[in-house]
Amino acid sequence: MNLSCETVNRSEQWRPSTCHDPLRLRLAAPMHLSVRQGFPRTTRSVIMATTSKPSRLETGDELDDFVDAHDVALVEFYTSGCALCQAMEPVLGNVARATDITIGMVNPGDDIELVDRFDIRSVPTLILFEDGQETARLAEGFQGGDAVTEFLAEHVPSAVDAN
User: Fold this and answer.
1) Bridge partners of 128?
2) Whole-model pTM?
3) What is the average pLDDT across 17-29?
4) What are the contacts of 56-59 at 24+ separation with CB within 8 A?
5) Looking at residue 49, what is its pLDDT?
6) 132 and 67 in contact (C-beta within 8 Å)?
7) CA triplet 106, 103, 129: central angle to 5 degrees?
8) Contacts of 39 by beta carbon, 8 Å cutoff, 6+ apart
9) Phi/psi of residue 45, each to 5°?
10) CA geometry: angle at 142 spanning 1 and 64, to 5°?
11) Domains of the chain (ranges plus CATH)?
């Protein structure tokens, strides 16, 4: 299978030699790959130097504290056992490393009040918060790194352009 930068996010057989754009490599590379598995030399230090990953939030109070503590925050609402939600975690980790946006993850099933409070109708749902207020939402199922980055660039370009 010959992969391109556009298809690498949705493929289980990721091959770093098929994509030479460092930003797309950072967004597309599965988190479990190591240097020994073939990252191009020029992007190794970029990928390994940043270790941001989504914060797991257990309750609505933790979510409120997380959102209040950051000027801009992206939160994924997920459920246990949702394959699409599980597939989003490494994508969001890569997006966190490629942007200045802090990312959190919360299971509204652990705090059922969150379902009504944030009008969660499907998972995964991504909600963008600025200064503690919801400013945008993406509830269209699994989204690759490029789609999430484009969503963020549309709503908070300064946080995406900074990297």
Assistant:
1) 74, 136
2) 0.68
3) 40
4) 56/104, 56/105, 56/106, 57/104, 57/105, 57/106, 58/106, 58/110, 58/111, 59/110, 59/111
5) 34
6) yes
7) 85
8) 16, 25, 29, 33, 47
9) -65, -35
10) 145
11) 8-49 (no CATH), 55-161 (3.40.30.10)
